[in-house]
Write a structure and sequence with these properties.
The protein is α/β, with parallel strands linked by helices. It folds into two domains: about 240 residues, Rossmann fold, CATH 3.40.50.1820; about 90 residues, Rna Polymerase Sigma Factor, Chain: A (Orthogonal Bundle). α4 runs antiparallel to α5 and α4 runs antiparallel to α8. Its EC number is 2.3.1.31. Keywords: Acyltransferase, Amino-acid biosynthesis, Cytoplasm, Methionine biosynthesis, Transferase. It comes from Hymenobacter telluris.
């Protein structure tokens, strides 16, 4: 793996909202070596709170002796615009003032994220991508990119994602943002602002990432005698604390609103017409227990993307199954890249 690298866009980035973002930095990692024919590129689009180090959050799928082994592939993973893992974000100093923008950071959309990564692709001199892959927010980016530049991507792998963020998904995100906004420290615009709200927001999010069955499997009490201090309560607190230790509330608000903006049909005559633009050979993966991005959303993708293959994982892990069920995903990829997909 390379050290975390940075690319600065040569020109200001005009956002879909019309605002202009100056001094844009994109942080990225590469893994493996670009071969002589330059046809072994795998580009990974990460999800909401992940980073450019794909081997750290997608182990079992990326890494030595995994399906995407850097001995065979040249893997690129770039941190999304607005994230706090190296790319320009609400906590980055604004070139105009030298101070972070905090809650004044402009509205970002999925298309803005794609625009920044497209500039990086051109900077790296990558003309063809063998496989573009992403799940959840990462899948939204990958889909948008494949629609914009249909001849660049040979294969497209979309996991637990959609063509348009649903009212249900937007409502979940808004509930989390309300938790952040209810924390008075968020409005003080300091790096630690909104930490308590972010802790509560993550607890809300976990309910959409997992499933009834997953909680029953891992958080059930071993005794019938308890009346307080339940394992499920401690788990929610633990997950909230974990995120607060590595993330910030301002970034969380920006990225969740970007997810809400996702609609490939905007300005393209609707979702179905937009999906028909995809030329990549496409695998769409749904998860039976996913309540945030239910399988009907992936089935819609497969129905309208020309020649797309749909596969479904029977998992009790809910939405997070796309990060956890790597053995199953590997099997699906092996079948997808075989001569036939029975």
């Amino acid at each position: 793996m390379s050290d975390l690298q940075s690319f600065f866009l040569p020109e200001p980035l005009t956002l879909e909202s019309g605002e202009v973002l100056t001094g844009v930095e994109v942080a990225y990692h590469t893994f493996g070596t670009l071969n002589a024919s330059r046809d072994n590129v795998v580009w990974v689009c990460h999800a909401l709170t992940a980073n450019a180090d794909v081997e750290s959050w997608w182990p079992g799928l990326f890494g030595p002796e995994c399906y995407f082994d850097p001995a065979d592939w040249f893997v690129v993973c770039a941190n999304v615009l607005g994230s706090c893992y190296g790319s320009t974000s609400p906590l980055s100093p604004a070139p105009e003032t030298g101070a972070p923008r905090f809650q004044q950071f402009p509205l970002l959309t999925i298309r803005d994220m794609v625009a920044a990564h497209e500039e990086l692709r051109q900077h790296l001199g990558i003309t063809q991508v063998h496989t573009l892959i992403g799940g959840s927010l990462g899948g939204q980016q990958a889909l948008e990119w494949a629609i914009q530049l249909p001849t660049v991507f040979e294969n497209l792998v979309l996991l637990a994602t959609n063509a348009q963020h649903s009212p249900w998904g937007i409502a979940f995100n808004e509930a989390q943002r309300l938790a952040v906004f209810a924390d008075p420290t968020y409005h003080q615009a300091t790096p630690e602002g909104g930490a308590a709200g972010l802790r509560a927001a993550r607890a809300v999010a976990l309910l959409s990432y997992r499933s009834y069955g997953a909680y029953a499997d891992t958080q059930a009490e071993p005794t019938n005698e308890k009346i307080d201090d339940f394992r499920a309560s401690a788990y929610q607190q633990y997950q909230g604390d974990k995120l607060v230790a590595r993330f910030n509330a301002y970034t969380y608000v920006v990225l969740s609103k970007a997810m809400d903006s996702h609609n490939v049909g905007r300005g393209r005559g609707g979702v179905a017409a937009a999906l028909r633009r995809v030329q990549a050979r496409t695998l769409v993966v749904g998860i039976t227990s996913d309540v945030l991005f239910p399988p009907a959303e992936q089935q819609l993708l497969a129905r309208h993307i020309p020649g797309a293959v749909y596969a479904e994982m029977d998992s009790r892990f809910g939405h997070d199954g796309f990060l956890i069920e790597t053995a199953h995903i590997t099997h699906l990829l092996e079948r997808f890249h075989a001569t036939t997909f029975a």
